[in-house]
């Protein structure tokens, strides 16, 4: 099999490429240049997609003895990931740029180019497992629960999953680092990347304000309607946020306040107590089902963040045409925001790690 190994410069993608080589595949390494000014991205232990990372990827490819290239995807990354990120926040939604990057860059743009060049699969260092049942690809959680990345891959289509290759799915991170050291890969002890690669200083609010400017509005108590303060834009907030609200006076009951809702048209940020954060209903659209959409109500476990944010639920109203799904949660879930991806997993003991589908949250109740 001809395999294109996406090599980020980290230990995971390097070992994934090494395993593809060891399995006898014809492997070519590629590093994606995602910024026209890579020197402005994070470096060191918090790095991702930097010049430093491209050098690390090249050194790993040299040790593995495979061809290596750098492909410029900066323009598409800016359009598909960065601008989408900014637009979602401007609309009062909370996006996950890593989900968008996997969907639009690694398994749309990259896979599209790979297939055009005659490759059979794209190999990445994601921690997730793939199996095929009756010709249908099934995405599952990885063996390492702490590193599982099935959530950020659940937006991939069945056709994209057919050409995906995740060699690390059955391993835990500690094993991968040991293997990297045994193979002589210099990235064996390289720290994992964190946060958003295109926001070098980690100041998301400042980044968004530099793109969107100031859009002043009011912080309003959800119960009384009282104005508690002012802000420079709803894009500086997300549902469930507690710190940095800018409330001018403490609440009458002395308890902290959280963001409950965002209204970008009026510029209103509604805040309230923690007991108003829990939701029991999630409505979502743009549903993607690896197999057939469920014909009726289906028991599942939903997850709304890459790590954590899970609850048992019943999914109903799946519309193959509209791509809509409604989930009734058996337990309240906090910090659920429109724009987030919700992933549905099968809850039974034998296949509790199986991804049933995913969708983008449009509303909560």
Automatic annotation (TrEMBL):
Positions binding ATP in this chain are: 6-13, 32, 125
Its predominant location is cytoplasm
One function term, GO molecular function aspect: methyltransferase activity
SUPFAM superfamilies according to UniProt? Adenine nucleotide alpha hydrolases-like
Reaction catalysis annotation:
S-sulfanyl-L-cysteinyl-[protein] + uridine(34) in tRNA + AH2 + ATP = 2-thiouridine(34) in tRNA + L-cysteinyl-[protein] + A + AMP + diphosphate + H(+)
Q: Which UniProt keywords apply?
A: ATP-binding, Cytoplasm, Disulfide bond, Methyltransferase, Nucleotide-binding, RNA-binding, Transferase, tRNA processing, tRNA-binding
Record site feature (Interaction with tRNA), residues: 126, 340
Region: Interaction with tRNA, residue numbers? 147-149
Gene Ontology biological process terms from the UniProt entry: methylation; tRNA wobble position uridine thiolation
Q: Where in the cell is it found?
A: Cytoplasm
Q: Where, by residue number, is the active site? A: 101, 197
Annotated tRNA-specific 2-thiouridylase MnmA-like C-terminal domain ranges read 280-361
Q: Identify the GO cellular component terms for this protein.
A: cytoplasm
Q: What Pfam families does the database record attribute to this sequence?
A: tRNA_Me_trans, tRNA_Me_trans_C, tRNA_Me_trans_M
Q: Which residues form the tRNA-specific 2-thiouridylase MnmA-like central domain?
A: 206-272
Q: What is its EC number?
A: 2.8.1.13
The UniProt function text for this chain reads: Catalyzes the 2-thiolation of uridine at the wobble position (U34) of tRNA, leading to the formation of s(2)U34.
Q: Which family does it belong to?
A: Belongs to the MnmA/TRMU family.
Which PANTHER family does the UniProt record give? MITOCHONDRIAL TRNA-SPECIFIC 2-THIOURIDYLASE 1, TRNA 5-METHYLAMINOMETHYL-2-THIOURIDYLATE -METHYLTRANSFERASE
Q: What is this protein called?
A: tRNA-specific 2-thiouridylase MnmA
Species of the source: Amycolatopsis cihanbeyliensis
What is the name of the gene encoding this protein? Answer: mnmA
């Amino acid at each position: 099999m001809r395999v294109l190994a996406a090599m980020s410069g980290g230990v995971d993608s390097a070992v994934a490429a090494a395993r593809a080589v060891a399995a006898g595949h014809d492997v070519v390494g590629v590093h994606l240049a995602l910024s026209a000014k890579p020197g402005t991205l994070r470096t060191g232990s918090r790095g991702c997609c930097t010049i430093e990372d491209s050098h690390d990827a090249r050194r790993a490819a040299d040790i593995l003895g495979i061809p290596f290239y750098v492909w410029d995807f900066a323009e598409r990354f800016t359009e598909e990931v960065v601008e989408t990120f900014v637009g979602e926040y401007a609309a009062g939604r909370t996006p996950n740029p890593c989900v968008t990057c996997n969907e639009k860059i690694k398994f749309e743009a990259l896979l599209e180019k790979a297939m055009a060049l005659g490759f059979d699969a794209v190999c990445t260092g994601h921690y997730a497992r793939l199996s095929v049942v009756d010709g249908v690809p099934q995405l599952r959680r990885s063996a390492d629960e702490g590193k599982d990345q099935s959530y950020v891959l659940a937006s991939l289509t069945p056709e994209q999953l057919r050409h995906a290759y995740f060699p690390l799915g059955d391993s835990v991170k500690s094993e991968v680092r040991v293997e990297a050291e045994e193979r002589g890969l210099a990235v064996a002890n390289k720290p994992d990347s964190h946060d958003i690669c295109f926001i070098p200083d980690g100041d998301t609010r400042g980044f968004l304000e530099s793109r969107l400017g100031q859009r002043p509005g009011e912080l309003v108590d959800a119960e009384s309607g009282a104005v508690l303060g002012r802000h420079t834009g709803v894009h500086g907030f997300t549902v469930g946020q507690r710190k940095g609200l800018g409330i001018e006076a403490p609440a009458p009951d002395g308890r902290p306040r959280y963001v409950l809702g965002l209204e970008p048209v009026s510029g209103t940020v509604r805040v309230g107590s923690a007991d108003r954060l829990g939701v029991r209903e999630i409505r979502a659209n743009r549903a993607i089902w690896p197999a057939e959409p469920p014909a009726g109500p289906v028991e599942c476990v939903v997850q709304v963040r890459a790590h954590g944010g899970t609850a048992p639920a019943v999914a109903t109203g799946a519309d193959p045409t509209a791509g809509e799904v409604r989930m009734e949660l058996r337990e309240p879930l906090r910090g659920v925001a429109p724009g987030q991806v919700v992933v549905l997993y099968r809850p039974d003991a034998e296949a509790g790690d199986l991804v049933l589908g995913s969708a983008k949250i449009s509303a909560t109740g």
